[in-house]
């Protein structure tokens, strides 16, 4: 861009006369004028002086040159050199001699720039950031003169008499001369430059220059420290407060508002490719007058009605609290005699039938937790036992004042607390129950509601123990006294009875709104990787909740958003990971893990090919005990991270606390959004949390005030979880060699096979009275193959590290490609453990090792397909399944070999 002023108005320096110039040098005879000009130089003065200096630096005259770089101080008229010796500008002898000298100087390219070098040397000294006394080299950096005489006769004269001919001279420098030293030095310098260029092109620097130019400037340890130190409990608290400020069941207006808010946050944080992904799924919603639990009188009129709803705890700003209901429950209005069935397990219902109690057409009353933790399987067991409906209440013996102080000041459910939740069969069908196995996009086909195996076929409702106490009192004298261990902690019941077909008649009404194409909204944002952009480390948390959801799910939401902010800030500073990082806000998790499952089914092949790891946050913070469940490949990395994070309340590291309680990496069942990743596409998954035992689960008491005062005052453990998550992401996404603990997987596989064999011999469901003939020797052989392959596989990493260290940190492109292949083989190991057949009758679940138990959705069941076929008693199918699973494991072991 040109100057912004009119240079025509700048003052010009005075031009000295010839006599003044030769009398006083290049300055004016008036020293006073020059002094004033030096004190206050104008821009024209500076420009003129620089122009003058540049002319003086060129040595047309050497009579005042001292040979050491000073400029000539005397003014001389300009001269013009010519090949014509009769030139008009060279009439005297002195001028001819000077012209000859200048000609030789120009032929030898000896332009004196010593002052320029002096200025450059000073500038360079500043750039390196510290002071050094650089040597003042005396020689000029030029090639030695090489000349060849052309056209000489034998006597040494010229071929044209006295006429001089052009000639080239070549004289090899004498041994030990300065010229030879310079020649050798320059040759070595050229070789050094060529070697550097070779390394540059052979390495992967230029290949990845676009993405990694800035990120290579960041020291990995500095990035770790920055991430760990940037987690802000104040920001986490603000996130939680906003997301719990109103009710937001999946698919509702409140849920949509939070989806938009999440999208804007991702954009504000600088994440890339921020998108909202819409699916259309089956959902049900309660209506104000559509639910009732009543005791009917002889005239079929209600003599008592349950309150159903909790006390209002949200306040005016929170809007209406969510009605008490079960997601995916069956609509209906049924009546029948009331029968109490303890925890609602299959064993409990069998005990009733064995005692002669007729349960057909009755209304079951069961309590949460206990021997059957999955509420959906309680309802399903009641359905299979012939009941017409099922009521589930929260008992103080399991979750109430008998355990400790109740909410809002404590962890346990108060008398009016209601545990909402879905009763879809997530261990049988996961995701949208009308599209099992394919994504539920609006244009896609879907099953009818009465066709799916993912829904129960009798209506159900949740109750507070405040309502259950009335029902239990009315059972006195009907049926039998309950067996030992069946009595709960509801006060004032007195004697506990089972009830029978003569019990008081109870009405269960559950009329609801249903929509087979209800929109839900997943929100995604990413940071693209620089080296392996297609490889993805995914972090997920669901956004929908049954009520306000402080612990479930927004303790995880608040942490995930804070980490997204920190990594977005790193991206803005120029950092970029080797592999892509993706943040996912799932919708519809509470309704059978819909949002994450539909995403996985929509992107099944790309996830199998390129998903490296999935980290799940759900009910992330309810206390101070760190827990983790997931694939064994994370074991070593997790312990390294825990060793770096300190708990201020215990004044020690989380690793120390983990070791004190002999912590273990638990298995994965079917409790949260990791299911589709681990069990459908074989992405190694990890679920993280700080556990505190009970909390007011799925009730309106799980709100911001509870978390702020009881769950995690000061948000200490939210902050620690953020540090853990951030460090895990860094290692998985930016470490050159993927930090998977393959030996841990091999060891775990061997232990799981031993546990399977023990279960096969001792469990009554598996043993079948001692007739079980299943042999696991082939499965053990497959496990040994994995162990041997892992030992060989890990040798390559040692070799790679030695090569890179030996090359002072340089990695040639060929070795970089092998490293990428090595990482891919590690990430694909669990994908190779998928069986295309799937678990019999539960074909969505493909993983041969991980999967939910058939009758315990929240608990892991290693080798689910083998267990299911053994329980069925079909020995032919069971043997075929063992052989097939062993074959899958052997193939996965073979694929590890490089």
Automatic annotation (TrEMBL):
Keywords: Membrane, Transmembrane, Transmembrane helix. Residues 51-66 have a biased composition (Polar residues). Residues 81-97 have a biased composition (Acidic residues). Residues 334-422 form the PA domain. One of its GO terms (molecular function) is carboxypeptidase activity. InterPro entries: PA_dom_sf, PA_domain, Peptidase_M28, Peptidase_M28B, TFR-like_dimer_dom, TFR-like_dimer_dom_sf. The keyword Nucleus does not apply. Residues 522-706 form the Peptidase M28 domain. Residues 774-896 form the Transferrin receptor-like dimerisation domain. Residues 1-98 are annotated as: Disordered. The chain crosses the membrane at residues 178-201. Pfam families: PA, Peptidase_M28, TFR_dimer. Residues 33-42 have a biased composition (Basic and acidic residues). Belongs to the peptidase M28 family. M28B subfamily. This is Glutamate carboxypeptidase.
């Amino acid at each position: 861009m040109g100057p912004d002023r009119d240079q025509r108005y700048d003052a010009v320096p005075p031009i000295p006369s010839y006599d003044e110039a030769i009398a006083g040098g290049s300055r004016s005879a008036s020293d006073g004028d020059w002094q004033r000009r030096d004190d206050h130089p104008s821009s024209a003065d500076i420009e003129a002086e620089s122009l003058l200096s540049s002319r003086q630096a060129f040595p047309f005259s050497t009579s005042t040159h001292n040979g050491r770089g000073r400029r000539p101080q005397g003014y001389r008229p300009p001269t013009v050199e010519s090949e014509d010796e009769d030139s008009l500008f060279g009439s005297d002898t002195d001028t001819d001699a000077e012209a000859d000298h200048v000609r030789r100087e120009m032929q030898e390219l000896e332009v004196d720039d010593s002052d320029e070098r002096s200025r450059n040397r000073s500038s360079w000294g500043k750039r390196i950031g510290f002071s050094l006394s650089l040597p003042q080299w005396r020689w000029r950096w030029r090639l030695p003169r090489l000349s060849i005489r052309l056209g000489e006769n034998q006597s040494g004269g010229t071929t044209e008499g006295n006429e001089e001919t052009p000639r080239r001279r070549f004289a090899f420098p004498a041994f030990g001369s300065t010229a030879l030293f310079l020649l050798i030095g320059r040759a070595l310098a050229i070789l050094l430059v060529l070697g550097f260029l070779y390394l540059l092109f052979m390495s992967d620097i230029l290949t990845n220059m676009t993405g990694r130019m800035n990120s290579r400037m960041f020291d990995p340890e500095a990035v770790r420290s920055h991430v760990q130190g940037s987690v802000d409990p104040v920001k986490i608290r603000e996130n939680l407060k906003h997301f719990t400020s109103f009710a937001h069941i999946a698919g509702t207006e409140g849920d949509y508002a939070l989806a938009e808010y999440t999208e804007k946050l991702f954009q504000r944080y600088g994440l890339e490719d921020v998108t909202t992904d819409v699916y259309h799924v089956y959902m049900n919603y309660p209506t104000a007058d559509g639910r009732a639990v009543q005791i009917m009188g002889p005239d079929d009129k209600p003599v008592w009605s349950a309150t159903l709803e909790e006390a209002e705890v949200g306040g005016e700003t929170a809007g209406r609290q969510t009605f008490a209901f079960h997601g995916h429950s069956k609509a209906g209005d049924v009546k029948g005699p009331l029968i109490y069935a303890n925890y609602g397990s299959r064993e409990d219902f069998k005990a009733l039938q064995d005692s002669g109690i007729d349960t057909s057409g009755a209304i079951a009353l069961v309590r949460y937790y206990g021997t059957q933790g999955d509420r959906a399987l309680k309802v399903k067991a009641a359905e299979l036992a012939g009941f017409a409906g099922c009521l589930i209440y929260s008992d103080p013996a399991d979750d109430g004042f008998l355990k400790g102080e109740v909410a809002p000041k404590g962890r346990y459910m108060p008398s009016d607390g209601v545990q909402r939740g879905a009763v879809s069969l997530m261990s049988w069908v996961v995701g949208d129950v009308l599209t099992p196995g394919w994504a539920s996009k609006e244009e896609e086909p879907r099953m009818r509601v009465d066709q799916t195996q993912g829904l129960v076929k009798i209506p159900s409702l949740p109750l507070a123990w405040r309502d259950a106490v009335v029902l239990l009192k009315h059972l006195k004298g009907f049926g039998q006294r309950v067996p030992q261990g069946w009595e709960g902690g509801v006060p004032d019941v007195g004697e506990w009875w089972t009830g029978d077909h003569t019990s008081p008649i109870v009405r269960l009404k559950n009329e609801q709104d249903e929509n087979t194409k209800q929109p839900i909204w997943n929100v995604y944002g990413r940071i693209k990787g620089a080296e392996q952009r297609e490889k993805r480390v995914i972090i997920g948390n669901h956004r929908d909740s049954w009520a306000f959801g402080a612990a479930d799910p927004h303790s995880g939401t608040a942490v995930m958003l804070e980490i997204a902010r920190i990594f977005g800030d790193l991206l803005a500073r120029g950092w970029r990971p080797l592999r892509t990082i993706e943040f996912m806000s799932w919708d519809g998790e509470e309704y059978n893990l819909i949002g994450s499952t539909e995403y996985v089914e929509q992107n099944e092949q790309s996830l199998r090919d390129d998903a490296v790891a999935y980290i799940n946050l759900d009910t992330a913070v309810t206390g101070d005990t760190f827990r983790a469940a997931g694939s064994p490949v994370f074991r070593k990395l997790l312990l390294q991270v825990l060793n770096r994070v300190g708990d201020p309340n215990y004044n020690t590291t989380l690793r120390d606390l983990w070791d004190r309680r002999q912590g273990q990496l638990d298995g994965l069942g079917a409790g949260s959004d990791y299911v589709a990743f681990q069990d459908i596409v074989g992405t190694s998954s990890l679920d993280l949390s700080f556990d505190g035992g009970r909390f007011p689960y799925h009730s309106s008491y799980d709100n911001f005030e509870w978390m702020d005062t009881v769950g995690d005052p000061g948000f200490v453990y939210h902050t620690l979880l953020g540090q853990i998550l951030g460090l895990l992401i860094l290692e998985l996404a930016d470490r050159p060699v993927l930090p998977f603990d393959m030996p841990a997987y091999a060891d775990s596989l061997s232990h799981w096979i031993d546990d399977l064999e023990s279960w096969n011999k001792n469990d009554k469901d598996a043993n079948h009275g001692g007739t079980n003939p299943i042999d696991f020797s082939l499965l053990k052989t497959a496990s040994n193959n994995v162990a041997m392959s892992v030992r060989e596989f890990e040798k390559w990493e040692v070799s790679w590290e030695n090569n890179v260290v030996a090359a002072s940190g340089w990695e040639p492109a060929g070795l970089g490609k092998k490293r990428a292949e090595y990482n891919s083989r590690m990430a694909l190991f669990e994908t190779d453990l998928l069986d295309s057949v799937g678990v019999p009758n539960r074909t969505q679940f493909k993983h041969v090792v991980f999967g939910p138990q058939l009758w315990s959705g929240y608990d892991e069941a290693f080798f689910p397909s083998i267990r299911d076929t053994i329980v069925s008693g079909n020995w032919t199918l069971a043997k075929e399944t063992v052989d097939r699973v062993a074959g899958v494991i052997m193939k996965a072991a073979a694929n590890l070999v490089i």
